Amino acid sequence: MNKTLVGALIGLAVSAAAWAQNAMPVMELSAGFHRIEAEVAATDANRQLGLMNRKAMPAQHGMLFVFTQNNTHCMWMRNTLLPLSVAFMDEEGKIINIEDMQPQTEDNHCARRPARYALEMNIGWFAQRGIKPGMKLNGIEKAPRPQ
User: Taking the model in full, what pTM does it have?
Assistant: First the structure.
């Protein structure tokens, strides 16, 4: 095998290993009868990266942010290409408030009271399904512990 091919294969293996290390777990949540497939950002690195640089996200997919403590957490959209809606939730998965966020902005979108979780979905996803503050998301108790 020539050196170029060997080098390319080694580079591919290293890239795959790095991707696997940064890959986020996926879990299922539900809002009423609406199923959500959520990537889980439970580490500082994953929470900081979030959905940055993604160009598309399937309709029933989202990202669940698991915070280390209850707080009035805020989200912003730096380097995020997709318009998103975020639902802030308490420890039991009860929605506190929902905010719409525009791509590539640095506006803060914050929980109105201390939250333990935030779920980002494509913009309008919650409104289109009649999901409002006070409603509970099911499956949140299975979320990984934050790190």
Answer: 0.83
